[in-house]
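About this split. The held-out portion is used to measure sequence recovery: a designer receives only the structure tokens and must propose an amino acid at every position. Recovery is the fraction of positions where the proposal matches the reference. Here is one held-out target exactly as it appears in the evaluation file.
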């Protein structure tokens, strides 16, 4: 989804297990190239992600789909 670097993909469970869903659902997924220590920290970073924002915007405004 986000076209992460090869280095990030090597360490990320979302890539390793070829997750079919968004990375924000997976504990241990890398966020902006780093591992988060808590769910709150992860969600804070996810809130700045353009992919996450786009999906949330479509969810909140289904008439724009």
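Reference sequence for scoring:
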């Amino acid at each position: 989804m986000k076209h992460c670097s090869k280095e990030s993909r090597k360490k990320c469970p979302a890539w390793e297990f070829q997750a079919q869903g968004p990375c924000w659902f997976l504990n241990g997924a890398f966020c902006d190239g780093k591992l988060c220590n808590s769910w709150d920290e992860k969600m804070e970073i996810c809130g700045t992600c353009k992919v996450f924002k786009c999906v949330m915007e479509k969810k909140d405004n289904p008439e724009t789909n």
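Annotator remark: The chain has a mean pLDDT of 77.
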